[in-house]
Amino acid sequence: MKLKYLFLPLVLLVFCSCDTDGSDYEIVQVATPQIISKTDFRKSVEIKPARQIEEAGKIYAYQDYIFIGDLAGIHIIDNSQPEQPTAVSFIEIPKNQDVSVKDNYLYADSATDLLVFDISNINKVTEVERLEDVFDFYDFEIPIEADDVDFQSFDFQNSIIVGWTVASERRKIDDPILFADGVFDGAGNVMNSGESVVGMGGSLARFQIVEHHLYAVGSHKMTIFNIAHLEAPVLEHSQYVGWNIETMFQADQYLYLGSTNGMFIYTLDNPLVPEFVSEFIHWEGCDPVVVDGNYAYLTLRGGNPCGQLESVLEVVDISDKSNPTLAGRYSLENPYGLGVKGNTLYVCDGTAGLKLFNTVDPRDIKLLKTLKDIQSKDVIPLQNSLLMIGNQALYQYEYLENDLRLISTFAF
Asked: What pTM value is reported for the model?
């Protein structure tokens, strides 16, 4: 024990003697990934009893059910009585970001894998399929306080990042930076196609189901699955579609991809290989998009890692898909998701509440009302009601003329 404590000062002395004035060194915050083997990671999926929501993410509606994303999976909410929704169960899915449902089959990502669940018996959900390593991207959320990232001990092929440790390191100022990007490399009502029933997600979705295909986008790539056999999807194709893609919306056989610096339009004339049509460029900003007829509505949120300080709502004329043009721009405070129903556009303006705009003239939309004292993140305009997810609550509203009436609040 005495030798150990005698040795420590000597080490410090030698270390410090290498740099007497410290002018060539700096202290940086370095993030190191916490990893788990893919074998152990894939054993983590489990159907559990309903539990409290920790951090609500995206929402998805299917028939009488609402699915709410959380930090480690999906909450199932029975909404057969909108005045009193009840929690059913929790599907624990590590590194889940998105979900889509068709004819009682639920599709969810889990880092690099696609999972399929049979939800025909909502009280006995079962996993029926897993396609491994079909995504070469997943969000691993590098800590915002990190100046640098050390990936040297990470095996991308056989491991998954599930968390981070951040520590201070003393480095030479001219040492190379290891930092990398933090991403690893519905319109209208419920859609009906024959006997098929497809659910509906919000404007922050990255998954879209169109007929017999499931489309999924990551930061730069789109992955297409054939789901003609719902319980056994087949990976058909993947392609580069842009950069910093955050959201995807589908309408009238087109896909609209929201990125941090623009909106990309792809046609589904060939559903297996979506074809690029055009791009609408704007300044850097977080960018969900929804479409109604010949107009697209985009929110750009500034004051964060997405880019600029200004936050706005943009209206884009897409009557000529090959040449989208700006039709209007309106100032907001800190917008997130949005949705459109009839002649009303619902915009989640974060802590500034939910804003209702009249879109009778899309080139000159008018603010109708602001629901204050709520924090709004995303909305889904259903046939008979509006779903909104906010800070620690799921809200449901009845449509009124130029207004909304609160039906229920499901607090987390």
From this structure: 0.87
* Mean pLDDT confidence for 121-135: 97
Residue 348 · residue 337 · CB < 8 Å: yes
- What is the average pLDDT score of the chain? 87
Structural domains of the chain in order of their starting residue, each with its CATH number = 36-141+179-411 (2.130.10.10)
Look-up: residue for tokens 């721009």?
329
**Cα dist. 156→31, 41, 94, 264, 310 in Å?**
16, 13, 17, 29, 37
Measured at the CA of 62, the angle between CA 56 and CA 64, to 5 degrees, comes to 95
Mean pLDDT of 203-213: 96
CA nearest to 93, candidates 37, 157, 42 = 42
Distance CA 348, CA 391 (A): 12
Instruction: Find all residues with CB under 8 Å of 8, minimum gap 6, and list them.
Output: none
